[in-house]
Design brief:
Length: 199
């Protein structure tokens, strides 16, 4: 049994008590805009955001490192769900280039040992005008009433510094609640600004 994996899952489950419902979180990221196409939930865990995102996106793909998690999601997913699930390998996938209109990540950035390699995969998967949505917390486990862990919380500034480069542009913060925040990135800043002027 993978004790570290179980501890991580338990921590994530407990932390969700401090989150708004998944639909409310996604709507905050959408910010009254209409999105279509493919939503990739990277590090989908129990599918908390994966299944809800089907209300807003045509094609939904959950990605996780654990084959046990993937098999469980396939076994227990709602009958109405058309979501697909695939396993990642060292934070790379077999998905084709330009697959995603949106890539969503919840509470996995601090667990990624090679951020540069991961960002390279994100950029490969995003469409030219695609967006990366990240949901994280600056709160410590003690703040959230959870067991202490050094790899849990991440300040906004550190997150942006670790991810942005010449091809991945920071766009905006999303105010989720007093415990959680969202951050948006895009590959093409010009396309993003045009989209926002027309929205």
């Amino acid at each position: 049994m993978d004790t570290n994996k179980n501890n991580s899952n338990n921590s994530s489950q407990e932390a969700k008590a401090y989150l708004p419902p998944a639909e409310d979180v996604i709507l905050k990221f959408m910010n009254k805009r209409t999105y279509k196409g493919t939503f990739i939930d990277f590090g989908c865990n129990d599918g908390y955001f994966t299944f809800t995102s089907e209300k807003f996106f045509t094609n939904v793909i959950g990605v996780d490192l654990s084959i046990n998690i993937i098999n469980e999601l396939l076994r227990t997913r709602p009958e109405s769900s058309d979501a697909k699930f695939i396993r990642s390998h060292n934070y790379t996938t077999a998905l084709p280039d330009g697959s995603a209109d949106v890539i969503f990540m919840f509470h996995i950035l601090k667990k990624i040992p090679n951020v540069k390699q991961f960002v390279k995969e994100i950029k490969r998967l995003l469409k030219e005008d695609g967006e990366l949505w990240i949901l994280e917390t600056e709160k410590t486990e003690a703040d959230l009433g959870l067991k202490a862990s050094d790899d849990y919380f991440i300040p906004k500034e550190e997150l942006i510094t670790r991810l942005k480069d010449d091809e991945l542009h920071f766009i905006e913060y999303i105010d989720i609640n007093e415990s959680y925040y969202g951050v948006k990135f895009t590959k093409n800043e010009n396309l993003f600004m045009r989209f926002y002027r027309e929205a």
